[in-house]
Amino acid sequence: MGGIYWLISQVMLFWHTVWDKVVPDHRTLGTNWQWVLAIVFLVITVRVVLFPIFVKQIKSQRAMQAIQPKMKELQEKHKGDRETLQKEVMKLYQEEKVNPLMGCLPMFLQIPVFIGLLHVLRHLKPGTSNHQMELYGWSIPEFMGAVDARLFDAPIVAKFSSSASDLAKIDANSTTVKIVAAILVALMITTTYLTQRQMIMKTGWNSDPQQRMIQKFMLYGIPFFTLTSGWYFPIGVIIYWVTNNAITLGQQYWVLHKYPPPPSASANTTPYKGGKPGTTSLTKGGAPAAKSAGGFRALLSKAKDEAAAQQAAAAEAAAAKANGRALAPKPGAKPINPKKGGAAKRQSG
């Protein structure tokens, strides 16, 4: 992992050098923007590198949705025979050239970056020896500058759970650190939830129970993880996470519109409504609701027309009966012989 720590440090130091020439050297709004922007552009650098893989992830998800009907057929055909089902599913993946692991690849590739940044920020602390300061390519002034860097007067190396003694070493106010950290954790939870919700709103809930379970875990489980773990992350790491989520929202919006779900996916998904699977098509989820509403209005109008025609016919028949005359047959109707009808009445009488 030493190589990852060195790489993360070098990217941060590069962007710090760039922004140090652009923004003022002193704090503005209690913030050392050179270091905050260095973390933000570390995220941007990683996302630019991973963008082609992100597009492949979306294409892989679309391919998985396209083969869902075939998957369902295999599940019905080999119900109760797990071994044969697994073999047939793998064969289907090979025939359709689908790699289910590709959907998780961008997230897995970002994990080393996240761990690397977490380690580097935890390494930034006062009282470190000169030799330790110069690890991963840092100079002593850069190391000390990063230790002292702040976001709204809260050090980026501090965390919500930092002890009073640790905060005293970096001359930080406990209340300020907790307020800034709590706001960032709330943003982290919200943006994490929105990235998952955006995906499910576009693709719908998968009809396959296992895939739906994964969707529910991604929608609720990961935000819960950020809630429970965010209190132990340095503020700099939370800045990384929030920025990463914001970029993901933008990328997903673009990719989901450029690569919409395949038509066959609509038969195997349930429209999204408030995060609850199993809703009907009359939802806010999209076009099916609008079509159903239009069809209902057309049926209602047709029923009103038929009722009006029946009322008019009944009124005409009543008027004819009152005047003692037979109602003229409608065009195309079979004529009635009154004599034959009268003879039948006399016989029955």
Key traits:
two-stranded antiparallel ribbon, disordered C terminus, 4 strands, two-stranded antiparallel sheet, mainly alpha, about 70% helix, elongated, about 350 residues
Folded structure, characterized:
With 349 residues, this protein is an all-alpha fold. It has helices spanning 2-20, 33-66, 68-77, 82-96, 105-123, 130-133, 140-148, 164-169, 174-203, 209-229, 235-258, 287-322, 338-348; strands spanning 150-151, 154-155, 205-206, 269-270. The strands form 2 sheets. The chain has a two-stranded antiparallel sheet with strand order 1-2. Strands 3-4 form a two-stranded antiparallel sheet. A hairpin with a 2-residue loop joins β1 and β2 (154-155). α3 packs antiparallel against α4, α5 runs antiparallel to α11 (235-258) and α9 runs parallel beside α11 (235-258). The radius of gyration is 34 Å and the shape is elongated. It starts with a helix and ends with a helix.
